[in-house]
C-alpha cells in the first residue's frame, strides 16, 4: 500500500507484522477518523510496504520482500509489531512459524528489527506480553523489550534501532489510533527522540496524561461519591476497581469512535497501557482495600493526604451527588443558590 506523492521526498517505509494477539490494534487503527487512516499516512509521507489487513500481496512476494530487507537490499524505516512474541516451546519459537519459510516468527522479527531505523511495539501485547502472556503462559509470550515488567523480551533491554532508540512502546489494549499515528508523524518529521518517551518507553504524546483527566465522573470523584454497581453514575474508584487516577493515557480527552471511553461505557479503567495489567490479582471490577482504604491510590499522592482529603470530601458531599452516584440516570439536578424560589 503506497501513499507516496510525486512531489514528495522519498517515503518513510513501514513494514507491519502480526504475532500472538487478537488483531484488535489493527482493527482500532482502521477506525481512525478526522482524518482517516489513509489521509494520515499520506500526510506523513508513509509508504506501507506490507500490512496483513491493508495489503493485497501475500505469500512468496511478501517473503521475498522480508528477505530483501533482512539482506540489506531494501531499506526499512519503521518496523511495527502487533501481538506478543511467542517463544514456546522451550524458547524455540516453533509454536508460531512464518508460513512458507519454516522459520519462527520471532526469528523474522529479530532479523527485521536489526535493519529498521525505528521499531514500534503496537499494543501492550507487543510491548510487554499482554493478554497473551496471562495465566500460565504456555506459549512463553513476551514483548519486544520487556517480559511483563522485567526488561528483556525478544530483543533485550539494550536493543537500539538504527536511529539509536529503544523499542517505542505504543501500549494499550487496544491502542487508540491517534497514539500510533501521532508517533508516526513525529518520526516522519524527524522529531521523535528519547525525550519523547516515558519511563516505559511509551510516547509522552498520550502518557503525559492520566485517564482521570477529562473523566465525566470527576465531580463524583472529588466528593468521593462512589458507584456501587456498573450501571451507577458515581466514581468507580472506591468500589469497582477503576484505575483512572493511576493509568497513563488520554482516553477521556481523546474520544474513541467519535465519542466516549471505557468509563463513558460504564466500565472501570483497567490501566491497559501498563505492563502486567492483565494480571491484577483480583477481578477487574473489584477494588482491593486495607482497612477500608483502596490499595491503588492516585498517582503521586501520599496515603495520609488521600485519607484526610477523602474524609473531608465525603463529609461535604452534596445530597445531589450522593443520590445521583448510586443511580443509573440523573435524578437530582444542580440548583442555583442565587435564584430565589
Portion in beta strands: 5-15%
Largest sheet: 5 strands, parallel
Kindly state the mean pLDDT as a whole number? Answer: 93
Q: Helix content range of the residues, please?
A: 10-25%
* Stretches with pLDDT under 50, minimum 5 residues: 2-6
| CATH domain fold name of the largest domain | Rossmann fold
The rounded Rg comes to: 23 Å
Helix vs. strand class: alpha/beta
CATH architecture of the largest domain: 3-Layer(aba) Sandwich
> What is the total domain count?
2
Name of the top-level CATH class of the largest domain: Alpha Beta
Fourth-level CATH superfamily of the largest domain: NADH:ubiquinone oxidoreductase-like, 20kDa subunit
Total count of strands? 13
How would you sum up the global shape?
elongated
Report on the structure:
This protein has two domains: about 10-205, Rossmann fold (3-Layer(aba) Sandwich); about 210-325, Irregular (Cytochrome-c3 Hydrogenase, Chain A, domain 2). It is elongated and about 80 Å long. Helices cover about 25% and strands about 15% of the residues. The longest helix has 13 residues, at about 305-315. Helix 2 runs parallel beside helix 6 (about 175-190). The strands form five sheets. A five-stranded parallel sheet has the order 2-1-3-7-11, sandwiched between helices. Strands 4-8 form a two-stranded antiparallel sheet. The chain has about 350 residues and is of the alpha/beta class. Residues about 1-5 have low confidence and may be disordered. Its EC number is 1.12.99.6. Keywords: 3Fe-4S, 4Fe-4S, Cell membrane, Iron, Iron-sulfur, Membrane, Metal-binding, Oxidoreductase, Signal.
